[in-house]
Structure formats: C-alpha cells, structure tokens
C-alpha cells in the first residue's frame, strides 16, 4: 500500500449537487485539490453555478438544473451519461429547510423539504447507478449523502420537516449502503454542524455567537468539511459503509453550556 496516496482522488470524476455554494462548494473545492479530474457541480441558479465553476477552475464543470423534480433528475443523469462513461463519486448535498410555528406549519413546508432532502438523494442515486457501477472496478465508487446533526438530535427550532428529513436520510443511507455494497459502491453520510452557508445564516453572519454553543469554540471551515469528504471519497474511507459521520466540533457528542444558543440551524 502506498500510504502517500491514501487520501488521493487522482483521476476521479465527481458530482456534487447543491455544489454552487456553502458546503457543496467546500466539498467540490476539496475534491479538486485532492486530484479529481473533473467535478460537476449542479444547482438551480445558472449564474451562481457558472460563477462557482469559473472560480474553482477548469476541473469544475457547471451543470445547472432543478433536481427537485423527477424530470430534472432524469435530465441531469442524461447529461452526465453523455459526458462520462463512469462516475466515481456522487455527493447528494442539495437540500432545503423550512421553519414555522407548530400551529401554522404548512403542507408545502413538508413536501418541498422531504422531496429534496430524502426523495432526491434516493432517485438521483438510482438514476446514476449504472455510471457508479461502471466506476466500481479498481476501487469502490462512493455515494456521500449530506444530512445534518439535526438528524441525530433535535434542535430547539421549529424546523419540523427539516429535522425529520435529515433523520430519514441518515437511515436511508444505511439501507442504500446495504444494497449498493453488492455493486462495490460504498454509501456513507456526513452530518454537518455549524458551517457558514446560505442555509445557516447565523454561522455565516455571526460566527462568534454561534461558536459559543460549540465545544470546539468555532464554526466549521472549508478544511473541516473538505477533509471529511475527501476521507470518505478516497481509499481511506473504503471500509466505512453506511456510517453517519458528524463534522460538528463536538456538538452531538460534546458538552454545550446550558445558556448557549443552538448553533446548528441546519447545515
């Protein structure tokens, strides 16, 4: 074993949904630095996806689209199949959140969040199954679902469908992993804590305040998220099957002061 290549992604092809900003962009940038030949990023806003791809360089390719619908997923899968004979890594990162008081929480807040956070990772993986199997020869292909620490324990905010969806995604990952390992495809799951993003505005706008509720006393950085994703995507993570990995500075398993404000706010 050449341990200098343990975390290398040299020559691999990756797809990162919700890859135009936040955690998705952090992962895409990390994959490129680790040696990926091409990293496809997808999101709904065309200009934002294209700006991200330009910023990350020629190895990052923009594929704008709406994968909240079956038609959008099918279009993305067809586009990728026209470009690539195989896909080594799929990161299901696209997600949504919704907050409202219990008595006013709308059905739309369930449908939008559950569809994008749970249904899309399953069906997009299904539609890319052939390309993932094609890559799973010399090394396992990887599926990494991005859940949240809110799927591991409740937070005090009234984000009912978000917390339920992330818990569902963690368990779905375990079920998918049990099936996909038969095809030499390893599925696992990252559960982010407080990272600055469009979804976690508190960590983005006031990281010092968010840090007060984190045992590590800081919010997450690109190195933290990229490091975890590279670990799971590389040879180093080949034996990590179906496992949820909290990257949260100790929130789930650590001590948090009683008077601290919950810092997670979704990933």
Structure description:
This protein is α/β, with parallel strands linked by helices and 267 residues long. It has a single domain, classed as Rossmann fold (3-Layer(aba) Sandwich). The protein is 40% helix and 13% strand. The chain is built from nine helices and seven strands; from the N terminus they run E-H-E-H-E-H-E-H-H-E-H-E-H-H-H-E. The chain has helices at residues 22-33, 46-56, 70-83, 107-127, 129-135, 160-180, 201-205, 207-211, 222-233, and strands at residues 13-17, 38-42, 60-62, 89-92, 141-146, 185-192, 244-247. Strands 3-2-1-4-5-6-7 form a seven-stranded parallel β-sheet, with helices on both faces. Helix 1 crosses helix 9 (222-233) and helix 4 (107-127) packs parallel to helix 6 (160-180). The chain is globular, with a radius of gyration of 18 Å. It starts with 12 loop residues before the first strand and ends in a 20-residue tail after the last strand. The model has no long low-confidence stretch (mean pLDDT 92).
* N-C termini distance: 35 Å
Q: What does the radius of gyration come to? A: 18 Å
What's the helical proportion of residues?
40-55%
Number of strands: 7
- What proportion strand? 5-15%
Q: Tell me the major beta sheet.
A: 7 strands, parallel
Shape descriptor: globular
What is the CATH class name?
Alpha Beta
CATH architecture title = 3-Layer(aba) Sandwich
Strand-and-helix sequence, N→C?
Answer: EHEHEHEHHEHEHHHE
Mean pLDDT: 92
């Amino acid at each position: 074993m050449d341990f200098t290549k343990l975390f290398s992604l040299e020559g691999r092809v990756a797809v990162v949904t919700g890859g135009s900003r936040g955690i998705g962009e952090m992962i895409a940038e990390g994959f490129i630095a680790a040696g990926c030949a091409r990293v496809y990023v997808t999101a709904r806003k065309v200009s934002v996806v294209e700006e991200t791809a330009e910023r990350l360089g020629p190895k990052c390719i923009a594929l704008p689209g709406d994968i909240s619908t079956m038609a959008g997923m099918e279009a993305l899968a067809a586009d990728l199949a026209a470009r690539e004979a195989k896909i080594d890594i799929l990161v299901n990162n696209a997600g949504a959140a919704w907050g409202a008081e219990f008595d006013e929480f709308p059905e739309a807040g369930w449908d939008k969040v559950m569809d994008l956070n749970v249904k899309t990772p399953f069906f997009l993986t299904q539609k890319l199954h052939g390309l993932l199997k094609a890559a799973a020869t010399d090394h396992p292909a990887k599926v990494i679902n991005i859940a949240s620490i809110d799927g591991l324990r409740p937070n005090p905010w009234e984000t009912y469908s978000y917390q339920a969806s992330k818990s569902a995604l963690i368990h779905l990952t375990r079920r998918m992993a049990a099936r996909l390992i038969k095809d030499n495809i390893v599925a696992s799951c990252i559960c982010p804590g407080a990272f600055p993003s469009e979804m976690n505005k508190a960590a983005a706008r006031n990281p010092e305040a968010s840090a007060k509720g984190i045992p590590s006393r800081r919010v997450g950085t690109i190195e933290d998220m990229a490091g975890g994703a590279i670990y799971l995507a590389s040879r180093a993570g080949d034996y990590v099957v179906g496992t949820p990995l909290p990257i949260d500075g100790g929130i789930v398993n650590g001590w948090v002061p009683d008077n601290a404000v919950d810092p997670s706010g979704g990933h």
